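yo

u said u wanted the structure for the complex thing, so here. seqs first:
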Amino acid sequence: MKIEDTRLGHAVVLSIEGRLDHAGAEIFDAHVSQLIAAGERSLVIDFHGIDFVASTGIRALIKPYQTLAQAGGKIAVAHLSDTVREVFRIAGIDQAIPVFDSIEAAAAAV
Amino acid sequence: MAAIDLQIANSIGAIGSSNERVRDFLGECAAPTEAIFLAELVIEELVTNTIKYGYDDDGEHTIRVGVRFEGGALCIEVRDDGHAFNPLEQATPDFSLPAEERPIGGLGLHLVRQMTDEVRYERQNGENVVIATKTFVAA
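structre next:
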């Protein structure tokens, strides 16, 4: 799992690359927790480089969603592949975390 | 029939390299990317579950995984010697609750059941045997 942060307006865009499996979710969780602890409240996760998501990856997204919701922040995702989008739908996480086709639209929503 | 059999040690770190071999095998079979994704998901979820919750001791165990692909039909068999556990008897996550209030346990098995055509469970000679199948129709 490789993560690169860039800033777009008030949002931090995390471009993640690799697999959101057990190992990837641990790296993602540590990275996002650090950003939130540093005061970031608007996060966009760019899934362009992600071709695999398991339930551990979904949990790693629910955690910052809950933390940010309590802190008045927001999280959104963009660029999901068809299969990853299907996992989001079946897991029901797309009801909580908005899914966008572009980073710009996601950044405007957080 | 094209098939691969794998033996996975009961350590979470062992799943990644096994899934690499499954990816390579299904790639050689010219399986669609959806089939490769699903095979990896089923293995990741079922084997992780077994490693985390399936054993009553701290000893070494081997989880055996068989993957077959023929005529668009994917079949994954996961066999472990953990205590009896029927994944089909596990409660489905409560989707009537908002996502932030929903307990997230059981999500992996829910994904496996929803994304496959069929999941079967048998207890055979002291082993749990889970067989998941899905047929992919060429576009």
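Chain A has a mean pLDDT of 96. The CA atoms of residues 51 and 81 of chain A lie 7 Å apart.
cya
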